[in-house]
């Protein structure tokens, strides 16, 4: 896979150059969306840690979910003459003029976690994001492998209807199981990405599928819904993790607890470390003039019960999830 | 002002029955009930168990609406109280946890009541303040993450059972009985209906309208607190971003389906609770049906519209069957 | 009315206007004629039909019958907007303009001068200044309307109406909240408008202003035309007679002989009680078995007086004593605790709770006094309802009927029952016989007499002077928000009351027969 290779290359070169003398003098501003979810809080925590590792002077502006605050923050970073700006855009459009201002000031901009409208492609250096279709595909491929040719009815807990992440994770999973006729989705409903709805929807799936006897696996678009679904299965007398396979996405700490207890099987990580690769790309660009690729895809790592879930839980639990 | 005759709520109960039957048609095992770990288990039980938070909210909301008010903050109050309960559950005893969460709900209600009754702010604006700010307060309590707990005492309130019935259902019925005793066992109900029907006349008749106004908002806050505790206990954690989100609208809808006018006056607690279960029966039915989730809201809207149209006295006359129900209710039925 | 062919038609002619609301006749074949250049006072007590007449001629309500001619041409506006387009504009007491917009914007709202679709602000301000200049008003037209006094707001509203080529201008109580100087300014504007041939319908309840500015007076009473005459042919006393509908010759009813020498306990006394801007300080003594009547025109301060007594408004001066103890009455609850009861004039908005049943409405005040925690049992409520339905002959005799479905007279009886159930020491009745049919009048008067005989103190506001004199032991006459006379014994005559009401502070002499 080409992208993966690129990613690795940039990570390696980043590691090499991050010890460069110039990095220490570097100031980078980060316009963060806010802290609307645990993952977002973890991203902030990890970004700070990654900056410290590289001796970068890192400034974070919390936009409280408002684009106007982000635009203000970027203008203020430009005025301060920072070396680079990271932006986690709250929406896809409306960035043209402020990004042009940054461009005119010769300050490179790196997008984190989310992309902007394709029309603005020339206005930023690179975008570090995860590929949510790929995440779904990793989950699907794991399930095909684990089912090992046996028939397997899957129930799917979708994210919020219309959210692009939900659409992509659904599509990716379907791609992942496309080759295996033994694995098929029998029910699919939205759980709005929340524990409470995940639990409620799972309860109804269990009843609709003969008390859960017909369910071989649960796929949830995020771990929170899966945590709710696991509760629903336990209350219905099912044994998630053994009788019913589970696979979900995000890799938040609580799912590792469930995996350690044997109640969950697998999760695909949406890494909170978007800033690390971004720092490396900027350092390479500043030091060497290395032009990063337009898109740096983060790794969608698969964790299973074999990956010492308790240790992962310990490492993640204080990140702010 | 439209004059409404006392009803016995036939149309609501018929609607609930019809939706349950519809659920049975889309999902033949709907009425199957078995015992699982000493607890009744089945889709019908789910309707009542999942409907409990909105039913609890509607018990407080119906009183507020009967007073010509509205409480938009209940969803946010749920989030606050749920967050408090989850944060304290593993370090404090259950009575302390409940006292703190219910106390917070009471304070929230008091705040709303004082804004409305003393400062004279329009209810929709006054409670909007806490609706917006309350979720932020809840997020501050949880620090933006999902706070989980392991305390079996609190978990019992969400996932436990009493005599086979899920605890949330028992709590809802208990709260309903307590509220009924409070407003129908005393003259408060009459005073609420009089004030909602004509606030100036009621004040001139010597009713302490201000005190009662504060009282109904406090009660709504308490109901929301209990709903928040149940919601947290259910998922063994507090999700400040999502707990109770938009449930104020479901609670208002439940009250309206229950036949209480948004212009105040006559109210029925039991029918508001029936309204909440109508909404949940619909949600559960949609989940069981296997319709694609994109159709959920449309299906829900059509069903709600049908229920409300069936209730409309003006349209009721055009449906022969429903017309008969209305005539029967004219002969002096009893209110809840 | 025989207009010969040589005379030009009147500016505005209404003939046979009728309007009923749900069986209640608000207008009954009313005629009204307005000539160009005339200021025409439209007078009448509450419920006489003034507002309905105005609304019917401007299309706000749809009339049941009648023709409307402007310059001899029949028109039928179906909304206030159509009326404005036809040339009939109305300015209400509460100016219905946008207070936060500038004066100029208010003047030209909806018809701003534009160029290429853009408002020409400069042009608009210039025209606004010119327009207001015609009325001798020179103000900053770009300031928000709300920054000016009510008088100026009225003139702006009038200017807007006139500039929209109004031929007929209806001013509905424009002077209610103006001071003497502002009234003069407004009158100057009105006179100037008449010189341009505009006809003005002027609704007011200040008789002095009628005589100061009007050319002609039309009086409505109970939805009918009571009379119409040029102002110099209608002396003040005759006007009051028209408004209250009494001929001196009719005023023969005598109140029953008062049993003299009977010791009457003071129930409540008020000394120097008043509220600035509402009612001048007054003294009032209410005794057991004694009826005090309050007489006066609309807006003279009768309702204001009883609201202070009942605590519905808080007095800002004076002292009250109940059963020999000094008390302060700050709310209806406190008044109730002292044994007061109050049936307000506005039955629908302040009296009944329409959707509650007769039984619940009757129980309401007694329940409020007992407190929520000691509810009247259903049996007690039923007994209470049955007792008063029988006693007052409330029809239909169904305690479970929503009270809003009852007739006005029966609603009034339910209200009386509500207070009688509390066995009050003092019962205040504000227009107890307004808007109810003649039969119920007699019943309610009979009831008042009975209550009085049983030793209750009564304070009654009534425009029905003939009725008032039959039961009152004392009549307080009010004028211009002050108590001006106290009539007792043989003085309690309709003619005396009318004369006292009609007395002008100075300018208009009393006619001989009223002396």
TrEMBL record, chain A:
CDD domains: PBP1_galactofuranose_YtfQ-like. It is found in: Cell envelope. Pfam families: Peripla_BP_4. GO terms for cellular component: cell envelope. The keyword Metal-binding does not apply. Keywords: Signal. Residues 1-23 form the signal peptide. One of its GO terms (molecular function) is carbohydrate binding. The keyword Signal applies. Residues 28-273 form the Periplasmic binding protein domain. Belongs to the bacterial solute-binding protein 2 family. This is Monosaccharide ABC transporter substrate-binding protein (CUT2 family). The lineage of its organism: Bacteria, Pseudomonadati, Pseudomonadota, Alphaproteobacteria, Hyphomicrobiales.
From TrEMBL, chain B:
Its main location: membrane. Pfam families: BPD_transp_2 (PF02653). The keyword Transferase does not apply. Keywords: Cell membrane, Membrane, Transmembrane, Transmembrane helix. It is found in: Cell membrane. InterPro entries: ABC_transp_permease. The chain crosses the membrane at residues 12-31, 51-70, 77-104, 110-134, 169-190, 211-231, 243-263, 270-291, 297-326. It is a multi-pass membrane protein. GO terms for cellular component: plasma membrane. This is Monosaccharide ABC transporter membrane protein (CUT2 family).
Automatic annotation (TrEMBL), chain C:
Belongs to the ABC transporter superfamily. This is Monosaccharide ABC transporter ATP-binding protein (CUT2 family). It holds the Pfam family ABC_tran. One of its GO terms (molecular function) is ATP binding. Residues 12-247, 263-505 form the ABC transporter domain. The keyword Protease does not apply. The keyword Secreted does not apply. SMART domains: AAA. The lineage of its organism: Bacteria, Pseudomonadati, Pseudomonadota, Alphaproteobacteria, Hyphomicrobiales.
């Amino acid at each position: 896979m080409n992208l993966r290779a690129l990613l690795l290359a940039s990570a390696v070169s980043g590691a090499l150059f991050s010890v460069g003398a110039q990095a220490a003098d570097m100031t980078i501003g980060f316009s963060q969306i806010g802290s609307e979810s645990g993952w977002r809080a973890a991203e902030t925590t990890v970004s700070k840690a990654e900056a410290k590792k590289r001796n970068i002077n890192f400034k974070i502006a919390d936009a409280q979910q408002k684009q106007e605050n982000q635009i203000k923050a970027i203008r203020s970073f430009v005025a301060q003459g920072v070396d680079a700006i990271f932006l986690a855009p709250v929406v896809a459009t409306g960035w043209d003029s402020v990004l042009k201002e940054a461009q005119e000031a010769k300050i490179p901009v790196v997008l984190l976690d989310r992309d902007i409208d394709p029309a603005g492609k020339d206005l930023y250096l690179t975008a570090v994001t995860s590929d949510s279709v790929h995440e779904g595909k990793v989950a699907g491929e794991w399930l095909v492998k684990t089912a090992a040719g046996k028939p397997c009815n899957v129930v799917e807990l979708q994210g919020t209807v219309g959210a692009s992440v939900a659409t992509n994770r659904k599509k990716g999973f379907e791609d992942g199981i496309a080759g295996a006729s033994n694995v098929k989705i029998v029910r699919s409903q939205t759980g709005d990405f929340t524990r409470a709805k995940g639990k409620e929807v799972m309860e109804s799936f269990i009843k609709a599928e003969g008390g859960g006897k017909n369910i071989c696996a649960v796929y949830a678009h995020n771990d929170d819904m899966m945590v709710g679904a696991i509760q629903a299965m336990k209350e219905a007398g099912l044994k998630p993790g053994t009788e019913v396979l589970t696979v979900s996405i995000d890799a938040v700490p609580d799912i590792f607890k469930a995996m350690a207890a044997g109640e969950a099987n697998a999760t695909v990580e949406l890494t909170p470390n978007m800033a690390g690769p971004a720092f490396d790309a900027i350092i390479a660009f500043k030091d060497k003039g290395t032009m990063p690729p337009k898109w740096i895809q983060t790794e969608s790592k698969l964790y299973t019960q074999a990956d010492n879930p308790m240790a992962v839980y310990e490492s993640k639990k204080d990140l702010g999830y | 002002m439209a004059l409404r005759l006392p009803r016995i709520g036939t149309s609501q109960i018929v609607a609930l029955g019809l939706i349950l039957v519809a659920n049975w048609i889309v999902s033949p095992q709907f009425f199957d009930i078995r015992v699982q770990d000493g607890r009744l288990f089945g889709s019908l039980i789910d309707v009542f168990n999942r409907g409990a938070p909105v039913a609890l909210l509607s018990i407080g909301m119906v009183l507020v609406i009967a007073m010509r008010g509205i409480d938009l903050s209940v969803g946010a109050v749920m989030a606050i109280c749920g967050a408090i309960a989850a944060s304290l559950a593993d370090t404090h005893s259950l009575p302390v946890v409940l006292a703190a969460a219910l106390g917070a709900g009471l304070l929230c209600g008091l705040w709303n009541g004082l804004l409305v009754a003393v400062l004279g702010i329009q209810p929709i604006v006054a409670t909007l303040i806490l609706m917006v700010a309350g979720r932020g307060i809840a997020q501050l309590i949880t620090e933006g993450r999902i706070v989980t707990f392991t305390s079996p005492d609190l978990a019992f309130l969400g996932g436990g059972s009493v005599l086979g019935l899920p605890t949330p259902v028992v709590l809802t019925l208990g709260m309903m009985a307590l509220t009924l005793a409070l407003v129908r066992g005393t003259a408060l109900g009459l005073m609420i209906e009089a004030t909602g029907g004509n606030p100036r006349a009621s004040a001139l008749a010597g009713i302490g309208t201000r005190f009662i106004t504060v009282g109904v908002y406090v009660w709504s806050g308490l109901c929301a607190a209990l709903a928040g505790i149940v919601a947290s206990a259910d998922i063994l954690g507090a999700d400040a971003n999502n707990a109770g989100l938009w449930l104020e609208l479901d609670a208002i809808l439940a009250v309206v389906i229950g036949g209480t006018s948004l212009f105040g006056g006559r109210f029925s607690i039991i029918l508001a609770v029936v309204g909440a279960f109508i909404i949940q029966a619909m949600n559960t039915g949609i989940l069981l049906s296997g319709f694609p989730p994109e159709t959920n809201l449309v299906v829900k809207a059509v069903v709600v519209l049908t229920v409300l149209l069936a209730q409309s006295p003006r349209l009721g006359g055009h449906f022969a069957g429903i017309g008969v129900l209305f005539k029967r209710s004219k002969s002096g039925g009893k209110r809840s | 009315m025989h207009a010969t062919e040589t005379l030009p038609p009147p500016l505005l002619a209404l003939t046979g206007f009728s309007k009923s609301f749900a069986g209640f006749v608000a207008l009954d074949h009313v005629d009204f004629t307005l000539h160009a250049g005339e200021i025409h006072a439209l007078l009448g007590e509450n419920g006489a039909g003034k507002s309905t007449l105005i609304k019917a001629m401007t299309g706000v309500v749809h009339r049941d019958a009648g023709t409307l001619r402007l310059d001899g041409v029949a028109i039928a506006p179906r909304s206030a907007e159509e009326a404005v387009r036809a040339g009939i504009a109305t300015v209400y007491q509460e100016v219905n303009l946008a207070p936060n917009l500038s004066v100029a914007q208010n003047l030209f709202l909806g018809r701003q001068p534009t160029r290429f679709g853009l408002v020409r602000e400069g042009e608009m301000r210039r025209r606004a200044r010119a327009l207001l200049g015609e009325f001798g008003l020179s103000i900053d037209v770009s300031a928000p309307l709300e920054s000016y006094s009510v008088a100026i707001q009225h003139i702006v509203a009038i200017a807007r109406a006139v500039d929209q080529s109004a031929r007929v201008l209806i001013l509905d109580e424009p002077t209610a909240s103006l001071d003497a100087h502002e009234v003069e300014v407004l009158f100057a504007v009105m006179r100037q408008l008449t010189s341009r041939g505009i006809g003005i319908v002027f609704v007011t309840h200040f008789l002095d202003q009628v005589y100061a500015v009007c050319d002609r007076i039309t009086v409505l009473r109970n939805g009918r035309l009571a009379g119409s005459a040029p102002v110099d042919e209608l002396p003040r006393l005759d006007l009051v007679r028209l408004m209250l509908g009494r001929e001196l010759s009719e005023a023969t009813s005598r109140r029953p002989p008062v049993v003299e020498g009977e010791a009457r306990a003071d129930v409540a006394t008020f000394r120097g009680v008043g509220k600035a801007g509402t009612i001048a300080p007054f003294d009032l003594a209410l005794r057991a078995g004694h009826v005090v009547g309050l007489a006066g025109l609309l807006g003279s301060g009768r309702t204001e007086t009883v609201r202070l007594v009942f605590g519905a408004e808080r007095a800002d001066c004076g002292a009250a004593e109940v059963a020999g103890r000094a008390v302060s009455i700050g709310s209806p609850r406190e008044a109730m605790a002292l044994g007061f009861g109050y049936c307000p004039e506005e039955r629908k908005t302040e009296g009944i709770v329409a959707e509650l049943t007769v039984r619940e409405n009757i129980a309401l005040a007694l329940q409020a006094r007992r407190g929520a925690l000691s509810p009247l049992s259903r049996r007690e409520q039923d007994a209470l309802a049955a007792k008063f339905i029988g006693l007052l002959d409330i029809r239909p005799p169904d305690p479970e009927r929503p009270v809003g479905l009852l007739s006005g007279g029966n609603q009034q009886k339910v209200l009386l029952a509500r207070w009688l159930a509390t066995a009050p020491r003092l019962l205040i009745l504000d227009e107890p016989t307004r808007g109810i049919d003649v039969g119920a009048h007699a019943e309610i008067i009979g009831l008042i007499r009975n209550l009085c005989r049983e030793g209750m103190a009564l304070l009654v506001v009534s425009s029905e002077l003939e009725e008032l004199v039959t039961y009152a032991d004392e009549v307080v006459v009010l004028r211009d928000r002050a108590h001006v006379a106290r009539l007792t014994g043989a003085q309690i005559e309709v003619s005396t009351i009318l004369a006292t009401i009609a007395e002008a502070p100075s300018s208009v002499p009393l006619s001989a027969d009223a002396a």
